[in-house]
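thread: overnight batch results

M.L. [08:02]
morning all. the overnight job finished for the chain we discussed friday. pasting input first so we're all looking at the same thing
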Amino acid sequence: MFWIALRPTHEEERQAWGWRALQFTPRVAFLDEALVLEVSACERLWGGRRRLLRKLFKPHEALSSMPVWASGATSLVALALLRLRGEGTPERIPEFVPDGLPVHTLSAARDHLPILERIGCNTWGGLRALPSAGVSRRFGAALLRALDHAYGAQPESHAWIALPEHFDVKLELPALACSAPELMWTGQRLLSQLQLWLQARNRGVLALELEWTLDLKRLDGKPLPPCEQLEVRTAQPTQDMAHLRRLVSEHLSRRAIAAPANHLRLRSLETVPWGGVTTSLLPEDNRKGEKLHQLVERLSVRLGEGNVRVPVAHEDHRPERMQEWVAARGVRGTRGTTSPSTPIYPTWLLPHPIPLEVKAEVPHYHGPLRRLTRLYRLETGWWEENGPALRDYFIASSDEAGLVWIFRERPASTGRSRWYLQGLYA
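M.L. [08:03]
and the structure it wrote out:
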């Protein structure tokens, strides 16, 4: 067995270190002030003990500093060595055998240290040499069980850490935040912890929520809500915290808070299984820089969703209904694909067809129009309440307007045809 015990420098990072450790082994537990993990069963998966340790303690943006750590054959031995290392004991600690470990490093013996010192029992070996019946009567059976666990005589039992179904972490701000952008420093730490949770659960985030707790209950005589929220969504699932930081920063820069805030909470609203990042063997397909959908999301926040639009195709033969312009943010793909069945479509399509004046059965637009092509007949929309669209399209020429695209609307019943202008050629 090979156990690792580590103690984060900052207490608020214990949970983050637990999530990181779960990426290497499922046997992770909190034991007193430390985090312990057993890795003997998965060392080969990571290329050996040294590589596993190197990857485990590799710097990560969610973890501000390197923890104090030690290893041993059992979790209690590793914890004892960790405590000695925290006291500044020389680096030759790992070579100690359990018999030589100080008795104060065993948690179960701490309540009995005065008595043990008076009888001259200062090490684990000395404690184990005492008659077990007398130790049980004087100190309780829990101390004997702890010794058996420490020496491997009995199997250890721990409450293993399990990842929560949803990410929900709340941190206290280092100082009162008087504006939304001031929340970003703590928000970055929360986003880094979110990345650890996403990697451990192999999921990508689509929506998350920031919530800050207001420090005041009333302001200028008006009651305030206990907290305020900000929802952030992405077009595609992601584990890229750099993009989420830019997106959250854009949202916060345009948000005002009602009063100073003292806590910040981040929780996931929608996540999906993570399929990884798709790459290509061709270098031109792996371009560096920001992806298009990430740029669109940032611009939509900065300029307004209605000011960043994309065309969405529709399955319809009527030119004015083949596509529509919608807000780019949130569009994950087109709702249909369509392509013109003829090359006569104009360069510029008018938003709405313009009725044309007809004189002597000749349509006029800046003068009489001369038809240059044979008709292109369109019959569709029979399922709609307004009736079908029955049209004959032509390319026509005008002395002043140049080439134009017109159509003749044929009535469903006998009646007079009407002419419309629908496009212009550059």
